[in-house]
User: Fold these one by one.
Assistant:
Number 1:
Amino acid sequence: MSSERGPDLPPVADRVLLDAGSIAERVRELGAAIAEDHAGEDLRLITVLRGGAMFLADLCRAVDASLQLDYMAVSSYVGGAPGAVRITKDLDDDIEGAAVIVVEDIIDTGLTLNYVLSMLRARKPASLGVCTLLDKDVRRIVDLPVTYRGFSIPDRFVIGYGLDLGGLYRNLPYVATVRDEAIV
Ligand code: 5GP
């Protein structure tokens, strides 16, 4: 796949930022690093639905170590503190004493993840790390322990590989930038 506009690019997008091959290669590297760092631990990969599910599915198959998966879902509090969320689907398993890595599709300001991490930290995992595929680090407001980072990306709204615009485009196999006029 080229990094130029291709025939399969939806009209809301202007270019492919990361093609499927580059993502797959980086996912393999991240998986190998996680396996090396956490061999022999009670490893849990957790994601916050829905965007991170696709990354988690690929990442976990690149980790050559014993691990468990778990999922949570949150929704933001209207009128609450910045980043404050309420859990709409909690983890199924207790994480006390486990080596937990929160797997995210993208970190922007970091407010949401910061809030999620504080909730998880209260459950006393042995360690708590973050693995994000994409990092808009120039927009970060809060300091976060990003242990594994796929790609640093510019301050553009992106879709694909789990990321949506109005619920669509999560199934694109690549990450593309969205035209400014398509963002309402
Ligand atoms: P944060 O709290 O870090 O500012 O952002 C949290 C959420 O905003 C992300 O998990 C993601 O759902 C959404 N988000 C931030 N940037 C983008 C983007 O470029 N594209 C899409 N589709 N969602 C984004």
Number 2:
Amino acid sequence: MSQSVCILGATGSIGESTLKVLQQHPEQYSVFAVTAYSRIQKLVEICKQVKPKIAVVPACYQDELAILLKQHQLDVEILTDDVGLQTVARHPDVDIVMAAIVGAAGLLPTLSAVKAGKRVLLANKEALVMSGDLMMQAAREHKALLLPVDSEHNAIFQCLPEQYLNLDKTGKPQLGVSQILLTASGGPFLNTQNLDAVTPAQACKHPNWSMGQKISVDSATLMNKGLELIEACHLFSISEHFVTVVIHPQSIIHSMVQYIDGSTLAQMGNPDMCTPIAHALAWPQRIHAPVSALDLFKNNQLNFEAPDLKRFPALQLARDAMKTGGTAPAILNAANEIAVEAFLNQKIKFTHIPTVVEHTLNKLEHSVASDLEIILQADQQARHIAHQYVGEIA
Ligand code: NAD
Ligand code: MG
């Protein structure tokens, strides 16, 4: 029977890869809803291609979208803003939700999908970084299947014993696992000694992956790896102490799991998000993805090194925020979003990004993240402080 998919963030890089995978399996999957924050023309193209029942956009684009859909004789209901996003994420006709909005904006719709007990394919790592225990608890309570799309976490999931997902939280590795090796490409500045003058265009030019702007900058500062460290701790119920970051510039191994008997399992493949997306869509089955098989004779160099925490302090900030717990990861995430935006708008230097995050973490008292209100409040306060600080150093 065909399964019905809602794509939150359909116009983005992950949205695009998701559509590419779905296109190969028209009998197995249909697209029920798509959402976009901008690029309405691109959304219309998607609607032409997959004929969804519902499209969600900000209210300011509602009229423009209605006119364009009518021109193309497409019968698509339009919903708007946060209410629209949450409506499609928990819609009874939806089986699978691809959470591919970037940043904190994805938290509420992703949580709605989890609370509705959907199969949730999680690309939007910021949502889990912010809400951590709350999201994992909701997944257990509502029997949602929260499957990692982030390539590293998808790799770890493939290397772990199957029972690992949604394990009760102990903080310690279980079932013979000793530690997780989270791989990182090192980004475009792996070998750049002076990072003071690097530009947004240079930061967005990732050596191995083609991605949205925000995650590209995060990859360049290694904040992406920091966010992923926090993501791994929550997804696999493990404390940060058991997650080691390994720089692997070729991005052929997507992460590894070590066991107490000396085994190290790795998941490998060409760096293409269609693989983890196809895996999460069909798990525990396997389906074809439009990705060529790995040729080890062409990719015959696999290198590994430790991250340089002096040039990339964001990684340590994230590790410390995870250790602190409570609202600290939400504060880290919010300050980082503000700093990345300011860097992309050429208001601050690249090296200011971790400075803004550190300043915000030091300024704000963190508290227990016992409910969503507290998390959203910490997010707002952190944005305010980070904004102010950006104004001071700009
Ligand atoms: P992107 O910028 O290409 O796309 C983001 C999508 O979110 C777009 O559809 C956009 O319209 C929508 N969006 C942006 N702001 C929004 C808002 N305020 N409200 C509602 N929708 C909004 O980003 P991406 O690279 O596709 O990344 C999406 C998520 O997946 C991020 O959390 C990222 O960290 C994660 N991720 C991406 C990759 C990748 O290869 N691109 C890999 C792993 C994880
Ligand atoms: Mg990743």
Number 3:
Amino acid sequence: MTIQNQGARHVAIIMDGNGRWAKKRLLPRVAGHKAGVEAVRTIVRAAGDMGLEALTLYAFSSENWKRPEDEINDLMGLMKRFILSDLDEFAANDVKLKVIGDWRALAPDVVALIDKALERTSGNKRTTLAVALNYGAQDELVRAATAAASEGAITAEAIEAHLDTADMPPLDLLIRTSGEVRLSNFLLWQSAYAELYFTDKLWPDFAPADLQAALDQFARRERRYGGL
Ligand code: FPP
């Protein structure tokens, strides 16, 4: 089934609220993250069906290292299992995996797994799934500006060409779940003209109908890019 979406090519999501989802059910935080992975799976499928070219998900920020070691290990374990178990589905559904952020600084087994998954899906064309891992927008901008400076003048075009998202369509819509209204160091440059959409839904409860509602609202908003 292909559901039409009017014009959005690239959507990004700050997946927040896994911990609160678990707490409400008197479950450990890891149960919330597990439910969060299920939501990732459903939303990736829906994004393809809705005709999105790219979906960028904030899975682990450069600030998430401040969390307890056990929770970090749980998150990394879930990430590895997700990649291992869903690679076949990506291949079948023409999903190209991409990872943004300083992911090469992660544990060697995670890096090796990601490298393999990137290679395996590199020829896929329908939807790009970009997972932000050890990502921070300020760090991305420092890296991009440094690379631009090493080639000559630091212009907006040169910075943009060195962003982790350089080969992706411009960001149209940024969604954050769980009622928090901030960007938390996510895609700061790319959000310059993106529409922002905040919902109280906790990430594990975020369903395809919620993505559709965000896209519907995007279609109703008039983007002027600073013009009249
Ligand atoms: C925020 O909820 C969520 C995260 C820090 C991690 C997001 C990770 C996943 C959904 C699972 C793995 C991702 C992929 C791509 C397989 P929180 O823990 O900050 O929730 P809280 O604010 O309610 O405590």
